[in-house]
Known about the structure:
- With 155 residues, the protein is an alpha+beta fold.
- The chain has one domain.
- It is built from 5 helices and 4 strands; from the N terminus they run βαβααβααβ.
- Helix 1 packs antiparallel against helix 4.
- The longest helix has 15 residues.
- About 14% of the residues have low confidence.
Amino acid sequence: MVTTIIGVYDEFQHGFSAKNELLASGFSRRQVQLNPDQESSTPQGAPPPDSNDGSVRAGIGIFFRSLFGVGDKSTHSNVYAEAVRRGGYVLTVDVDDEAQRLRAEEIMNRFSPVDMEERSAEWVRHGWRGHDPSAPLGHSNVRKFDAGKQNPGQR
């Protein structure tokens, strides 16, 4: 049974580096996805381009529908969609067994993933009530804070 390991990163370079490390350690490109992934349009070491356009918003929707299922309104899809809307990068790894799961988590943890339970609790404390797909893309003033434990989420 395939399990998807999920990590969120505040910085593109952290997510991109984690993705590359996963690929270097033997995971296939089919198993590893970074969203939004600026790899094809961003020179190495450069910051990602501004993502305030409709194509990025559509891509985010497609990504989360494929990850959590069409029409899914669960807390998880809401939280991860909101993380991307606020400027985060979601890295997923499909693993086939416990050894792969442990290896993926260990690698992802090296690159400072966000603790999404803590992050979403912070959003709620500041009035967030759920992902609004019509809200503008971009960074939030509630985006950065000490993430505490740093375990990528599992689905």
